[in-house]
Design goal:
The complex is a heterodimer of chains A (464) and B (130).
Chain A lengths: L7 H11 L29 H15 L3 E2 L12 H7 L2 H4 L11 H18 L3 E2 L6 H15 L7 E5 L4 H11 L5 E5 L10 H5 L8 E6 L9 H10 L3 E6 L20 E5 L15 E5 L11 E6 L5 E6 L5 H4 L12 H37 L4 E3 L9 E5 L4 H9 L2 E2 L2 E2 L10 E4 L7 H19 L10
Parallel strand pairs in A: 1-13, 3-4, 3-5, 5-6, 6-7
Antiparallel strand pairs in A: 2-8, 7-8, 9-10, 11-12, 12-15, 14-15
Helix pairs in contact in A: 3-11, 5-11, 6-7, 11-13, 12-13
Chain B lengths: L8 E2 L4 E6 L2 E6 L1 H7 L2 E5 L6 E2 L4 E7 L3 E5 L4 E6 L2 H4 L3 H4 L8 E5 L11 H12 L1
Antiparallel strand pairs in B: 1-2, 2-3, 3-9, 4-6, 5-8, 6-7, 8-9
The chains are: A alpha/beta (464), B alpha+beta (130).
């Protein structure tokens, strides 16, 4: 079925009825300079063979480097069954399932996903997903401002140790709505967000406090104290976490005396491949008390007139097709396919599988750090971390990164562009996909490069 | 046509006002609840908050839609009907009684003159339906 079912004659009749000459005239109010008439960068249509060739060439540009970069997207094992099932026709074209009578399978998958995610976070309710982790945090901030009726300020405490992309995206989305993101510094030695840094705002009207666990540097925050501080100051607590690690670390619903109000993050580690940066999906969970301020879809379980169980979209009255400008969000879809894959992934590996992946990733990163640290390399921060680690190299980092890249090895994420105060610092992560041999390859290359670059004098001695 | 008590004032946006001294009790009309259908949630204002006439001060959410409730008169909210938090259906069952939403301290009595009486509101509803 075509998505635009109107014939030219019907379109002409509709235009005549409203007194407009052409469809283009409907967009008159958009200044001509902002309109794009032709998509010049888009090449003409290709046949299947041409597309296949193009995609292959593009994929080859990425190469297959040995990657030790985490920094928000993580290479994990994905059982073959996950995408075999997720790409079945019944799931593959998943669109927002408005028609409950025709979409029970899709709705049930989302319902199961919500159940799993709520349990993983120890929260009461989950939505059907958002676009990605970064925009998910922006939605959480908007939601907190709506939900915190004790606060009038629209001020949010945003630690500098939160993922820089998440902070930038959140700023882009919220700053025109009068919401102010106040940056909370991290401890330059410990790498954590000290409670004293929040204390400066004690007694002020703060709508919410963002708490990352672990933070961008892989350092474990004192989440209990930060959450309790938020609540003691009439602010909501927003957790932003790696969902896989919540199988091992204390989940946001249990932080502090009362647990956080909203938990969000990037769903990619749960069965979604890196695939050059996307598509991924964001997740969001909340306390039931805030459910009416939650953006996006929520699938509920109910019974039909004969008492049989079934699934349907719920809480739709708050959405944009009914509430227009006053909708809780303009997020009107979910990342159906990625969520389907995540749901199948979690069902296949189970809670034990999640725990093993998380602990093995952490153990691998520890082993890698132990191998790398020594001559001219040391951990940047002193506090305990998990799953990811920042290292400092006593050399200009470029002189180390370039030769490693020449060996088809991505050694980590350089922090200096986002954090000028962290020169020559490298964020490394070795997930369970890395073998002992992979770690040794990295350590051997790095050791040799550092040795070459630091050995005194000219290595080529003149013959006498 | 649903019942329209003669001792109340009415706004175009289908709120009713019961004036007692300088206090105005506010709710939505029986006609409004009938149009909206079964109530599932009422988002109440907070006691102490101030609104100008015409400001959105509450939200009523039914199975069909979520709609703003506008303050028919300016003033400070003195009291809200907490019973609606657990029993939003009171708005359907008794729109002019137990389904009241909040009480406002009237800051400008002249605003009451701009509201409909029962007869004018009835005529207004009829005209809206046609």
């Amino acid at each position: 079925m075509p998505f635009i079912p109107h014939t030219d004659a019907e379109i002409a009749a509709m235009l005549e009825t409203i007194g407009v000459a052409s469809v283009d005239d409907l967009f008159d109010e958009i200044p001509a300079g902002l309109r794009v008439d032709e998509l010049e960068a888009i090449p003409p249509a290709l046949n299947e063979q041409g597309i296949g060739r193009l995609m292959l060439e593009r994929a080859e540009q990425d190469g297959r480097p040995l990657s030790f970069i985490g920094a928000g997207a993580y290479e994990h094992h994905i059982p073959a069954a996950v995408w075999e099932l997720a790409t079945r026709g019944e799931f593959y074209s998943a669109y927002t399932p408005y028609q409950a009578e025709a979409s029970q399978g899709t709705l049930q998958v989302i319902y199961e996903y919500q159940t799993m995610m709520a349990r993983l976070m120890a929260m009461e309710v989950s939505n059907a997903s958002l676009y990605d982790g970064a925009s998910g945090l922006a939605e959480a901030v908007l939601m907190a401002v709506r939900a915190n009726r004790k606060s009038k300020s629209k001020k949010i405490l945003m630690p500098r140790a939160v993922h820089p992309d998440y902070r930038r995206t959140t700023h882009s989305i919220v700053h025109n709505q009068g919401i102010e993101l106040l940056e909370v510094p991290f401890d330059l030695e410990g790498g954590h967000t000290p409670i004293e840094a929040l204390q400066e705002y004690a007694g002020e009207d703060i709508a919410a406090v963002v708490i990352a666990q672990p933070n961008f540097f892989g350092i474990l925050e004192d989440v209990d104290a930060l959450t309790d501080w938020a609540h003691a100051n009439n602010a909501l607590a927003i957790a932003v976490v790696n969902p896989l690690l919540m199988s091992v670390l204390k989940p946001p619903g249990h932080w502090g005396a009362k647990g956080v109000d909203i938990a969000c993050g990037e769903g990619q580690p749960l069965g979604v491949p890196l695939s050059s940066g996307g598509p991924y999906y964001g997740f969001m969970c909340a306390r039931m008390a805030h459910v009416r301020q939650m953006p996006g879809r929520i699938v509920g379980r109910t019974v039909d007139r004969d008492g049989r169980p079934g699934f349907t979209l719920t809480l739709q009255a708050r959405e944009q097709h009914i509430r227009r400008t006053k909708a809780t969000s303009n997020i009107c879809t979910n990342q159906g396919l990625a969520v389907t894959a995540s749901t199948i992934f979690m069902a296949i590996v189970g809670d034990e599988g999640l725990r093993r992946m998380a602990t093995q990733s952490h153990a691998n990163t520890r082993r890698l750090v132990d191998k790398l640290v020594g001559n001219h390399v040391r951990p940047r921060f002193q506090r305990p971390g998990f799953h990811e680690c920042a290292l400092t190299v006593d050399l200009p980092l470029e002189r180390v990164l370039r030769p490693l890249a020449a060996h088809n090895l991505l050694p980590g994420y350089s922090l200096k562009n986002d954090y000028p105060e962290l020169q020559n610092a490298l964020l490394v992560c070795a997930t369970e996909t890395k073998t002992e041999q992979d770690l040794d390859v990295y350590a051997d290359h790095l050791g040799r490069i550092i040795e070459t670059q630091t050995s005194a004098g000219c290595p080529v001695k003149p013959k006498m | 046509m649903s019942d329209i008590p003669s001792d109340l004032k009415y706004a175009k946006s289908h709120e009713w006002v019961r004036v007692e001294g300088d206090e105005a009790t506010v709710g939505i009309t029986d006609h409004a609840q009938d149009q909206l259908g079964d109530m599932v949630f009422v988002e109440l204002p907070e006691a102490g908050a101030s609104y100008a006439a015409g400001d959105a001060c509450a939200v009523v959410e039914s199975v069909k839609a979520a709609s703003d409730v506008y303050a028919p008169v300016s003033g400070e909210v003195l009291e809200v009907n907490d019973a609606l938090s657990d029993s939003p259906e009171l708005v359907n069952q008794d729109a002019f009684g137990d389904g009241w939403i909040c009480k406002i301290k009237i800051s400008d009595p002249a605003e009451l003159d701009a509201l409909f009486d029962a007869e004018a509101y009835g005529a207004f509803c009829d005209s809206e339906e046609h």
